[in-house]
Amino acid sequence: MKILLVDDDPDILLLVSFSLQKHGGHTIFKAADAAAGLKEAQLQRPDAVILDYHLPDETGTVLLARLQQLPELAETTFIFLTGKSKPEEIDELLNTGVAAVIAKPFQPEEMAAAVNLILGQ
Questions:
Q1: DSSP state, residue 83
Q2: Would the pTM count as exceeding 0.70?
Q3: 28 CB contacts (<8 Å, ≥6 apart)?
Q4: Which positions ≥6 away from 14 have C-beta within 8 Å?
Q5: What does the alpha-carbon distance between residue 31 and residue 113 come to, in Å, rounded to a whole number?
Q6: In the sheet where 2-6 sits, what is the strand order?
Q7: Residue 62 pLDDT level (bands cut at 50, 70, 90)
Q8: Interval 82-117: pLDDT, tens
């Protein structure tokens, strides 16, 4: 599967992409902010987008709303990877239409299994 990661932390991009490539066999595309994420999503048409809530140019929920409006991403699965971990914060994020919320910090070696489970693989 093609997965787009949108996160401004280069270490997160490295850890998640390595895990998903090595343990999940996925093709990974990366973006460090919302503008690049939107552009990359339009170019690559990923099967899934994993995005952070805190991005330097806008929130992940604003980016998510933009992505959800694109007809070419109608079948795309969206997942938040975020430091927001209070139950009410997670509920708020789930109400945006994402398939799941993965909390930071996470175990890199478990990331591929968690994403595969969310994607039904």
A1: S
A2: yes
A3: 3, 4, 5, 16, 17, 20, 21
A4: none
A5: 22
A6: 27-31, 2-6, 48-51, 77-82, 100-103
A7: very high
A8: 887 788 988 999 999 999 999 888 888 889 999 999
